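ARCHIVE RECORD
Type: protein–small molecule complex
Small molecule: heme C
Source of inputs: curated submission
Record status: active
Notes field left blank by submitter.
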Amino acid sequence: MDDERVKTSSLVWSLVGFVATIGLSLGAYTVGQRMSGVSGEALAGGAAEGQATQVSVNGGELFALSCAGCHGAKAEGGVGPNLAVTKSWALPVFSEAVLHGQAEGRTLSSIMPHFADTGLSGEPATPAQIEAIHNFIKSL
Ligand code: HEC
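STRUCTURE (tokenized, with ligand):
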């Protein structure tokens, strides 16, 4: 009888452990997905410079997925700094910071990813995407 109880309770605990593990992995997976960038759909549209095509790149979405985790949903700052100052940056300066971690001659902390290496959502980041993100920040 006691044996049976011990067995049952250890079975219950291993189930609890199992369920908790799945829960944690799912959580990590979801965060990983969010950190890794935009959905394939937004990328699939292609980016025609300066033309109003169907959603090619969505700066807000890209920012939410790839930047907001560190810079805050409104670029107000978090792990990374408030990005308001970058509104006045020329696009090439902004791109250099985002792609290569160089801002106005300064090497940014390695906490800031080099998106030229990591890509956005696993695809190489395109100039149109960087511009869309910059425009999104400017619109805040
Ligand atoms: C893992 C956290 C993290 C993510 C994700 C991240 N950043 Fe950063 N970012 C930082 C940190 C930390 C700094 C500050 C580095 C420093 O000052 O040395 C920074 C600095 C910057 C700067 C320079 C700001 C300045 O005033 O010098 C820009 C621009 C920037 N990030 C844009 C972005 C954009 C756009 C994205 C998304 C595509 C992004 N970051 C994603 C952490 C992050």
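CURATOR ANNOTATION: The beta strands are 102-103, 106-107.
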